[in-house]
Amino acid sequence: MSAHYPNANIAKLSSTVEAYVTSVDELYGHYLDSTVGFVANHKNIVDGQERAKALLPSQADFDSSAFFYGHGNPNDPSNRLLHKTTQGEFKRRNNKGGRNHVRAAQLLVVLLYSFWEHEYRPRLAASLGLAEASELKIPLFGDIRLLRCDVIHHRGVVTKETATKLSILTGFSEGLEIVLTEADVETLIRKIKAAMDELVLLVAGSDPMHRTLWHIQ
């Protein structure tokens, strides 16, 4: 038994870590599906505009044309408009690195921390024999918390406090938006899994029954 957590239940710890990592994988899969969908959206609108230009060569500016989501035939007065923008804005936000990609990464940060803080941190703390969830401190999740707060409370812009306190997730500057590329997101997921590996190994040591199996290959 680890000297750090003498009252730890290793089996419970391992199963809880595995459950959290499974949730992380699901959230990451959602992010990846979303980014692939954004790219497909961009391609579809570009291809549609090219076809329209072939049919209507005199109309040069399709980007200013409306793009909307709704229920029912758009020519039917009973149609319900859900969202309206322009084709140009639709292209820009779905293009690689556009607003949809930025927001998807920010949303992932929020969800990763929410799952951790409200579900798995208390369970992990209990499996370690800790009285309070707050006693389980992992620096990486402190950084994710800071970024999560800026996404929700500061429109995704890095505050001075966050820029000063980040210790693991570096490279964010005060006053600039939190922008995570696909490579940045992959690194974040790897760091989370590595932190979970380290936690189990800290308690289980070299016990072959509890070696971690959930790291990214």
Which key terms come to mind for this protein?
single chain; mainly alpha; disordered C terminus; 217 residues; 2 strands
Structure description:
This protein is 59% helix and 6% strand. The protein is mainly alpha-helical and 217 residues long. The protein has a two-stranded antiparallel sheet. Helix 1 (10-55) packs antiparallel against helix 3, helix 1 (10-55) runs antiparallel to helix 6 (182-204) and helix 3 crosses helix 4 (139-153). The protein is elongated, with a radius of gyration of 23 Å. The relative contact order is 0.15.
β-sheet strand percentage: 5-15%
Shape descriptor: elongated
The main sheet orders its strands as: 1-2
Structural class: mainly alpha
Please bin the fraction of helical residues: 55-70%
The total number of structural domains is: 1
Low-confidence stretches: 208-217
Major pleated sheet: 2 strands, antiparallel
- The end-to-end span amounts to 28 Å
Concise overview:
With 217 residues, the chain is mainly alpha-helical. Helix content is 59%, strand content 6%. α1 runs antiparallel to α3.
Write the layout of secondary structure elements.
Blueprint: H1 10-55, E1 66-71, E2 80-86, H2 87-94, H3 99-127, H4 139-153, H5 160-165, H6 182-204
Antiparallel strand pairs: 1-2
Helix pairs in contact: 1-2, 1-3, 1-6, 3-4
